[in-house]
Structures are given as C-alpha cells and as structure tokens.
Amino acid sequence: MNTQSQSTINSIDLQFDRKHLWHPYTSMANALPAYGVVAAEGVELQLQDGSKLIDGTSSWWACVHGYSHPKIVAAMQQQTAKLSHVMFGGITHRPAVELARLLVELTSPKLTKVFLADSGSIAVEVAMKMALQYWQGKANTDKQKILTIKNGYHGDTFAAMSVCDPEGGMHTMFGELVTKQLFAPAPQSRFDGEFDPEELNEIASIFEDNHQQIAALLVEPIMQGAGGMRFYHSDYLAALRKLCDKYNVLLILDEIATGFGRTGKLFAYEHSQIEADILCLGKALTGGYISLAATMCSDEVAQGVSDSPAGVFMHGPTFMGNPLACAAAIASIELIKENQWQTQVSAIETQLKTELADAINYEHVNDVRVLGAVGVLEMSSTLNTAELQQEFVNLGVWIRPFSNLIYIMPPYCVTAEQLSKLTHAMKTVAANINPSTNDIAFISHG
Ligand code: PMP
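Above: the input record for the complex with 4'-deoxy-4'-aminopyridoxal-5'-phosphate. Below: its predicted structure, written as tokens.
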C-alpha cells in the first residue's frame, strides 16, 4: 500500500466526530474538539499529525502495561482467529475457565466464584444484585439497602449511580429513578497520616440504627477515585470490615480502579489485610485492551443466591465471558504474575513523591498526594479541563484534569525520564494558574 492511501485510511474526520459522536460527559450541542489518536505504543499516544504524547492516564486506570504490548496483542490475535465470541449460556471455553482460575488464585481465599461482566458499572450492579439475592436466600427481605461512604464513585448505570456521592452533582438530575441508599461521611484520616477512630462514630451509628435494612456496605478500598482522588487510612477500611461482621452486613469492595497493583499492593484491600465478601474488578483486568469486568464472591454468598426464591442468579449479559476479552485478561495477568509491577510501582511512587513534593509551596496548590503509581495535585479552585488539556498537549503529555485535580496514573512501564516529563507538566500548569480568574495563564502556544 502506498503512503498516500495509508494516510487516508489513518486520517480521522474530526469535524464529523465533533458533529455526530458523543464523548464521555460532553455536550453534543456544544461539542469540544477531540484529539485524534492513530496509534499507541508503550507509554506514548501518537496523534494524527505525527506528534507523540506521554500518557499519564493509562486510559483511565486501564492500560497498566502500556499500549500494543506484544504479549497481549499476540494473545488477542490468536484468540480472535480461533473464537472471538460465543454465547456463555450452556457453553464454556478455555479462556473463561483459565481466567477464573487465575482470579481465584490471585484474590483472597474466600473469593471462589467468578461472574464475568462487561464493564465496571455492570460489575457493581451485579455485586448489588448478588447481595440482595443473598439475603433473600436467607429469608430476609428487609435487607435491601446499600450503605456507602460519601465521595465515592462506582459507575454511571442506575444502581451504580445510587451509590455515588449524592452531592457530587454527577447524577443528581435523575431524581426518583435513582434509588435512595444510605451514606456515611467520607473517611478523613489520610493513608499516610494518623488514624483517628472517632471518625467511625457516625458510620457506626448508621450500622447500629439501620443494620436490619442494610444488605451490604459498598466502598472503594483505600482510594476514592473519581470522587476526589483521596487515599484513606488502612485502619479505617479494617474497621469497616469489623462493623460488617458485627452487624451481619456483606462487604462489597470496588477494586475497579485500584486492582492489579495501582496502589502498591496487588489489591488495595491487602493494605488492610481484610477480605471482601464480594469484589468488583474491571479496567486493568484486561490490561485495558478490551472491556471486561468481574464480580467475585464467596461460597457463602453464592449459596445464598442459589437459596433465594429465584434459585439462580438473575443476570446474564450477551457478551458474558467473551473469549477474546478473557484471552486479553489472561495475558495481562500473566504479565502481572511476572511481578515486575511491584518494582515499577514502587519506583514510580518514590519518584512522584520526590518530584511533586515542592508543588505544595505553589500559591494555588492545596495538597499533594501520592500513593503507588498515582500522583495528585489538588488545586484551590475548579479547573477548566478543556483549556488545560491543550496546555498539556503543548507540553507533550496526555493528562486530563477534572474538578480541582491535576493527577496522573501512568502505565507501570513508564521510564524515569517520561515520568519526569509528566510531573514537570503537572507542576508547570499548577504553577501558572491565574489566581484572579481561576484560569490558566497560558504557558505555551506551540
Ligand atoms: N468503580 C470505580 C471505582 C471506577 O473508577 C469506575 C470507572 N471510573 C467504575 C466503577 C465504572 O467502571 P466503567 O466505567 O467500566 O463502567
């Protein structure tokens, strides 16, 4: 194929995109420009004009091994040549079985049953349905509420929305269609600070007063992600497990963003040495190569579900256990099992702490937080994502701020030099926020 036809195939009609194609959390009437990516390799995204950006997002926590990893690509190519999809009702296949075996092996001993769903939000829906059916199996129809903590984020579908921060504003417009759940105050003790047991008083009294209605407590372990990028104390999570045991409430952990090494442990619950009754996984499950999520549960929960009047678990998506996605997940987990991630994540953590520390002295930086391969600058005011986006692109990086947060969670294979470029860009932008307008004082117009 000659170069011209090759470039025609690669070219992206950005005008058509802007006019017709919805992007996450955007307006079609007032669409913002999107950057056309034609390829990605390692930690770099290649734009249509040939320029390359260092990715600080892992495409929203997912691409932990970077892009175009030969082992994952080969696994997917081989699988798609054999069996890209087949229904899961009454049929099984090796990729699903082997993936389930790996998940059972890697997660805590109690988690023995695997439900393969298609996205993180659905994994959360599945977890909530499991909890409700479990209590029906115990002949308890009172336990129909989910307790959660503020600042949480668990997805955009209706049940998932019901456990997102009620004051966060993301989902408030859906009114009566979103079930009312129970919310406790967000944890206050920082991961790297002292734990104050007093902060449990309010959630403890919610348990005490409402446990007869509470089917499960659902939380993101250690890191509250989209609800504010906060890292809370491991003793807080351990105390939540104890409260669940005391009041006969299931514990659902949403490890969709934290799973597979991001916080420095394979799963964030390991910081607190606890086990979940139900665990949600997604994002990095396939190394970010294709959508897949998993909800795992204990024998006890699975038995309760089977004892419910339905006798079966009432969920079964068309693409359940998709073999291509399972093959990608197996290849990704095999890379995780080589254990390089531990050294990589701990090197990233050290470098982030060193390079971001002095940003706390900037006029408009309120807080600097680092845990594992996540670095956060919390600004004093809400940022204009679209304008900042262009600044980051001009600086050669892909960083997507939201609310008042400039944060990164790069692929684990990021080099020290690439990481420095990311932290430099974060600090350059943070240092140039214009205090009078709350806007960026433009740094570069390249
Ligand atoms: N839970 C958490 C903790 C998440 O971060 C996300 C996605 N940002 C979800 C659930 C929802 O996952 P998905 O976008 O794949 O539906």
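Notes for the reader.
The first strand starts at residue 37 and ends at 41.
The chain is about 35% helix and 15% strand.
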